Amino acid sequence: MIREAMLYLPLEDQRVSCVLCHHNCQIAPGKFGICGVRENREGKLFTRVYGDIIAAHVDPIEKKPLYHFLPGTTSFSIATVGCNFRCSFCQNWQISQASKGKDIVDHGQEYSPQDVVLSAKKHRCQSISYTYTEPTIYYEYAYETAKLAKKEGLANVFVTNGYMRPEALETIKPYLDACNVDLKAFHEDFYKDMCGAHLQPVLDSIRFMKELNIWVEITTLVIPGRNDSEQELTQIARFIRDVDPDIPWHISRFHPDYKYADSDATSVESLRLARSIGIKEGLRFIYIGNIFGESEGTVCPNCQKMLIPRKGFYISENKIQKGKCPFCGTPIAGVFRE
């Protein structure tokens, strides 16, 4: 469906300035922003993907990945086509980089915010996740859905590249409970060359999410030869520590795909190195992803007792009581329900 967009400013000659993300696209009449789904029609900006979902699934919340936000529950997960990044290593490229512009109407099926909430409740999910592609680019749809979800007692989760402007976060803050942010690297050249974006806005978004009291977890997809040096992993770990050492860091294995199909998969040794660096830098919760059986459980950072054992995306028990370790009483950061 086509709806007038939020967060844009009119300019001269019927041009508009989109202030949703840090690309700050200035769009001429009849043209689209970088995301390919927001169009200027005679001086007004419209979203072309409102209510048009390309994916809808019931997922474990751990798949987002979120390990400290309602662990063991399921999340109704949705997406539209499109993205404001152009990651050459994207693992969801079939939908994030789908045809843009005029062909956008050929993708997805109509699914209203009410439909999403009803489906989440039908499947007994405790949250709705806006994921798979970039939720910022279907902001209006996510915003209206999140408002309805909150009224029905459901939590809302963004799985995001973190490139939204502060205004977007402030507007949705009353309804947004948690974010998993992809911190893809820690140097500007990586973001510029491989994503078509910049690093600093992502760092600023992570800090601002914490200021807004949104629960944050961070994922880094470790790509051989691109962001896996000891120096860069140390920079990422130090940044997270300086924001909040309780932020869980998910270090995920890269699988060759899209324009990086000829690359090697990440070695287990590289992921273990990243984890050891995170521990050395003072991070309290570090998880290795995309490798079964590697550092999946939540351990008390004080007494080292296993609190939430996991196999893949599933937990077998949750020993955390009233937000604390039952063995030593140490507070465990996160959002937990008894």
List descriptors.
alpha/beta; 2 domains; three-stranded antiparallel β-sheet; globular; eight-stranded mixed β-sheet; TIM Barrel; single chain; 338 residues
Concise structural overview:
With 338 residues, this protein is of the alpha/beta class.
Main sheet summary: 8 strands, mixed
Rounded to an integer in angstroms, the radius of gyration calculated over CA atoms is: 20 Å
CATH H-level homologous superfamily name of the largest domain: Aldolase class I
Series of secondary-structure elements, N-terminal to C-terminal: EEEEEEEEEHEHEHEHEHHEHEHEEEEE
Structural class: alpha/beta
Task: Report the end-to-end length measured between terminal Cα atoms.
Answer: 40 Å
Overall structural domain count: 2
- The CATH architecture assignment of the largest domain turns out to be Alpha-Beta Barrel
Anisotropy-based shape? globular
The chain-level mean pLDDT equals 94
Instruction: Please give the share of residues in helix.
Output: 10-25%
Q: Tally of extended strands?
A: 20
Q: Tally the helices: what do you get?
A: 8
Q: What is the third-level CATH name, the topology of the largest domain?
A: TIM Barrel
* Poorly predicted segments: none
Q: At the first level of CATH, what is the class of the largest domain? A: Alpha Beta
The proportion of residues in beta strands is 15-25%
Looking across the biggest beta sheet, what order are the strands in? 8-9-11-12-13-14-15-16
